[in-house]
Specification:
The chain has helices spanning 19-37, 78-98, 138-145, 155-160, 162-165, 168-181, 202-216, 250-266, 270-280, 287-302, and strands at 4-6, 47-48, 68-73, 104-110, 119-121, 124-127, 134-136, 150-152, 191-197, 221-226, 231-232, 308-317, 328-338. The chain is of the alpha/beta class. The N and C termini lie far apart (43 Å).
Amino acid sequence: MKSYVRRAHHAGSWYSEEPNELDEALANYLAKAMVASSKSSSDVAYETESTTDSENGNVDRDRHTGVPRASISPHAGFQYSGPTAAYSYLALKEALISNPSLRTVVVLHPSHHIYLDGCAVSGASTLETPLGDLVVDNNLREQMLSTGKFDVMEKRVDEQEHSGEMQYPFIAKVINDVKKHTPEHDNLSIKVLPIMIGSIKQKKEELFGKLLAPFLSDDGVFTVISSDFCHWGKRFSYTPQPSREVANEVHEYIEYLDRKGMSLIEMQRPGAFADYLREYSNTICGRHPIAVWLNTVVTNREEGKERLDVRFAKYAQSGKATSLRDFSVSYASAVARTANS
């Protein structure tokens, strides 16, 4: 396999290509997320712009205190999704500090531009970002390729796909911060392995979930699942209308749809998540990476390797849609931690 250097193809359009400007923007997102996450209120299940405290008051947040092992993070332009993605990267930062075994971040992302009936690892040796380059974990890649089930992305395909790239500057940022502000981690060496999850059927989601299970249960691996949630509007060919029993406004109905799916993700029910997608056709662009990861989580739990507690930490919409003239994209961040016995 001939490797390549993956350029920061979307820098300068989806996010700033100027290092100081980008660093300041990400630092601001992370700082605001930290303040919100540190609020003393214990009766909010996750931060959302349109739910009240009382709606989530029956959730026991105290038990969600294990070591962070994975996160779901959005991948739109940072001006839109950055404030939500920051909640996921607070978890990665915590993991880098608290887990001395951590050596690799695996990024599971969808394919927006090519049809892929399977999964493909990045063929890159290096992922460029304005905040410093990330080294790809070739050893882990070779282990996955040895299964005979994974393809390898070509450079053009890799660089065209934004859903992986939008995670890389955040990863570089938190690594830099940990190395700079915690002297005991100044020699921190973290690699990354992007994996594109294609538009695969449920049986293949189960297959790849089982294949990835031993890799992602390794203490040395943190997993980022890249996904936006509902894409609503004529431009997305998805305009379901609210019923009075559920919601009055379109944006309320969008949140209702998203939260049904988010609940199933928290409950770690890949089969029910697949049924939900068939019933509502919610335009969750990372539905296949999410489903593969959920099957991995279930496999590891059933085999006694790892039990996780999954919670959403932030939910937002790009706009409050009220009519067919509007459109919106939903963003959500979730964190999976080791579950207390």
